[in-house]
Amino acid sequence: MERSQPKRALAALAVAVTASAAMPAMAGPAIVADIDSGRVLYAEDATQPWHPASVTKLMTVYVALRALTEGRIGLETAIPVSKRASAAPPSKIRLKPGQEMTLDNALKILMVKSANDVAIVVAEGVGGTVENFAAMMNAQAQRLGMTDSHFINPHGLFAAGQQSTARDMAVLARALLTEFPESAQLYGIGAVKLNDVVMLNTNGLIGRYPGADGMKTGFICASGFNVVATAARGGKKYVAVVFGEPSAQKRTIKASQLFDRAFNGEFSRGPQLAALPRVGGTAPNLREDICVKRLGREPSENDAPAAMVQGTQDDGRPVTMMANGVAFATGPRDEFTPIAVFIGPSSGSKRAPVAANRKTVSPTQTATAETPAKPEAKTNAKATPQKSTPQKSAPKTPEKSATKKPSPTANPAKPEPAPISEPAPAPAATASPAQSAPTKAAPPVENAGGIGISPSGPASFRGTIAPRPTPGAAPGAGSGPLILPGAAAPLPSTLAKPTPANPAPVKPALKPAADQ
User: Fold this and answer.
1) Would you tell me how many other CB atoms lie within 10 Å of the CB of residue 150?
2) N or C, which end of the chain is more exposed by having fewer CB within 10 Å?
3) Which of 172, 152, 214, 157 has its CA nearest to residue 58?
């Protein structure tokens, strides 16, 4: 019975690949680059601006890790949750104002669940406000040479002017892995467990494609389905960026095809990532094709209705796993042992650096009212009624000042991660399907990017220079599809099932969680 499963998966993959090849109009920007050298192996419209959606969160993590190494924040820093973070649209874990979350737990949930409320928590904990953090994102993007990227928010929900490119995201992926190698495992976590809820990684390559070890997915109607993925095999490590696919399945399959060709030596090393010519312009909006013209329900980051599957916790009690109804065509997924995460401070939070928003955000303030420390005096002054008698106002001032604690000393440059066994001191937010985003609201959009590669590289370098469509034009108009030799044939390496790495796995849903 088990031996027939690979045959079914092989047949499903062949059908899916054929279907993918039959939709050239939906092909978006793509790039494959060598992590070590930074050289491009394949590119298609790689500098065409595009909405990145939740792959934006890779830049959020980058800025947070920079602050961590500089001692401005610690992994155990307890970051207060603001009203702005709590009010973020899904995907989210439904944090409540006044709760706290350590940076360590926030980064893990951000990479696995892609929670938008957690993205704001990280942004405010590092930058004080979302606006300050966005300025940090843009400053780091320019320093890294991400010349076509501009960020307005830390989560990638739609914002006019927020965009990136496939090339820029490959540059960012290299920077994350080369500058912060000690955090490389963060991008490949298979699942996290928040109280009794297990959340699976939205990257369909993790646990399926041999050697796939991380990065991030993203989706909004304006962008289609995006992914930044890395894979290592035989001493080689590549990054593949795929933007604008019509479904999570096709996104996973296309990335698998590109990795197969790279590992099989079908690509020649081309120019450096920085040498790709810029296209400029703005990101096209795919909402009409991805969501409006689509029959049936509008797609989401999960692209499938939720299903409930039972697993078992360490103590034998049942644990609910959030899964989805789409079964990917790239074979069965590996089993994951979830990493425990929690809401609230850790045992080391009192010794960690203070979050940047600790003095500017309180449970009673809205996000738009958050101000730097200096203007806080004005806020406190307003809190004392002008008409009150001196006897009543006098005690209030000392009470306010008494709540301000001196900042503890900073953690070492590379603090140890918070223990994952730390119990959650506050009730954890559950990703309840009942709490959903406003119906029929325009889905959030993410960054944009892209352009075609210059043919000026070595003669053996293969790419396309066809320009991407202008906003409003049909997706794929004016550019050739990404043609992969032998695309209709099954990809044996894609079907190889990796050996489970954890000794005490929690079985995933029969139908694996769909990507984001």
Assistant:
1) 19
2) N
3) 172
Q: Does residue 516 have a pLDDT over 80?
A: no
193 a catalytic residue = no
For residue 346, pLDDT over 70 is answered with yes
* From 20, 86, 91, 114, the catalytic residue: 114
Average pLDDT over residues 302-314: 36
CB-based contacts of 309, cutoff 8 Å, min separation 6: 320, 321, 323, 507, 508, 509, 510
Is residue 234 packed enough to be buried (19+ CB in 10 Å), middle (13-18) or exposed (0-12)? exposed
C-beta separation of 203 from 217 below 8 A: yes
Residue from 123, 376, 166 nearest 276 by CA: 166
Per-residue pLDDT tens over the stretch 79-95: 999 999 999 999 999 99
Tokens of 409: 């000393």
CA angle (65, 207, 55) in 5-degree steps = 40
Helix (H) or strand (E) holding 31: strand 30-34
Task: In whole angstroms, give the CA distance from residue 50 to residue 29.
Answer: 8
Average pLDDT, the chain: 72
Q: Select which of 20, 54, 362, 479 is catalytic.
A: 54
The 10s digit of each residue's pLDDT in 235-269 is: 999 999 999 999 999 999 999 999 999 999 999 98
Separation CA 136–CA 122 (nearest Å): 13
**Residue count of the chain:** 516
Q: How far apart are CA 258 and CA 187, in angstroms?
A: 20
- Helices 130-144 and 57-69 cross at an angle (nearest 10°) of 90
Single out the catalytic residue among 57, 83, 108, 193: 57
Give one DSSP letter per residue of 236-300, joined into a string.
EEEEEEEEEESSHHHHHHHHHHHHHHHHTT-S----BGGGSPP--S-----HIIIIISSSSSPP-
Dihedral (Cα; 64, 140, 443, 280), 10-degree rounding: -170
Active site residue 57: yes
Tell me what percent of the residues of the chain surpass a pLDDT of 70.
Answer: 57
- Give me 227's structure tokens: 């992914």
pTM of the full predicted structure? 0.66
